[in-house]
Design a protein that fits this description.
single chain; alpha/beta; six-stranded parallel beta sheet; 306 residues; Rossmann fold; six-stranded antiparallel beta barrel; 14 strands; Elongation Factor Tu (Ef-tu), domain 3
Length: 306
């Protein structure tokens, strides 16, 4: 995927464009990007997404912003898998937030993105004070020469698919429900880094991933599958949290892979959370922690029928 930072320099050629935060890249986002790719093929233009960094709610209310479901890298990778071939990332700062709806259209959509066909979600609002809406975009499209369409909501088992619904499922530990909304298991990816080697000392070596999601959308112990280390996903058990028993303070994802002993430091892996086993908790000592990890590993093996 080709990535452009900001809108001050126009993209090289006119595009079909979809706009959104795309946090989580759930079934609704996937449907929108699939439509984007279809229209782009018909128009023989590049299917392009426009998104924001940080999330607008992180800018306006950093203390109460919702937990991110995806990092920027994860989001772009998932959008690429859905059919986007180009992304414009607009830094959401004070200057960007101050743009009126008319300025957003003229500066971002027309001059920066050279939009020829625009696709948005049915609840998209834009510009200072969220004053811009679908009707305004239609009127602007007539003036500037671009078509506009809005995608309706996507339902999963009668429920409207949204990033908020995914967050609620993750927070409740219902990984199966989250997967139905996402169209796949929830994923965190990252580079394996060196840790304290405590897991190795107690018989459960782990691959450690430093977590950029802050706050975390969920914590606990999970049965997981790991991609990026071979031809097929590898089963394991993982702890996502701050590790209170050993005095941890920063979020960390620790993954123990079953029947696996390769050195994978520096590897980029994707961890799929398929089933929650329990909440993260503090234990009175390392022996109690070791016993619980053994029980967690056994429970995960039983889940995978290993």
């Amino acid at each position: 995927m080709r990535v452009f930072r900001g809108h001050s320099r126009p993209v090289p050629a006119p595009v079909v464009l979809a706009i959104g935060n795309f946090d989580g890249v759930h079934l609704g986002h996937a449907a929108l990007v699939k439509r984007l790719a279809q229209v782009a093929m018909e128009c023989q233009l590049v299917p392009t997404v426009l998104t924001f960094e940080p999330h607008p709610r992180e800018f306006f209310a950093p203390d109460s912003a919702p937990a991110r479901l995806t990092t920027l890298r994860e989001k772009l990778e998932l959008l690429g898998e859905c059919g986007a071939r180009q992304a414009v990332i607009c830094p959401f700062n004070a200057a960007f937030a101050a743009l009126s709806a008319d300025e957003f259209v003229a500066q971002v959509l027309v001059r920066g993105c050279q939009v020829r066909h625009l696709i948005i979600g049915d609840d998209f609002r834009f510009g200072r004070g969220r004053s811009g809406d679908f009707a305004m975009l239609q009127e602007a499209g007539q003036r500037f020469g671009f078509a506009v369409e809005a995608m309706g909501s996507v339902l999963a088992d009668g429920e409207r698919v949204s990033s908020s619904a995914v967050r609620r499922a993750l927070l409740a530990g219902d990984m199966e429900h989250a997967a139905r909304l996402l169209g796949r298991p929830y994923i965190i990816d990252g580079q394996v880094s060196h840790g304290q080697k405590l897991g190795r000392q107690i018989g459960f070596a782990t691959a450690n991933l430093r977590i950029k999601h802050n706050p975390l959308p969920m914590t606990g112990v999970f049965a997981v599958e790991v991609s990026g280390l071979g031809d097929k996903p590898l089963p394991g058990v993982a702890n996502l949290g701050v590790r209170p028993t050993v005095g941890g303070t920063r979020p960390l994802l620790e993954v123990h892979l079953f029947d696996f002993d390769r050195d994978i430091y520096g590897a980029h892996i994707s961890v799929r959370f398929v089933h929650k086993l329990r909440d993260e908790q503090r234990f009175p000592n390392i022996d109690a922690l070791k016993a619980q990890i053994a029980a967690d590993a056994a429970a995960a093996r039983a889940f995978f029928e290993l």
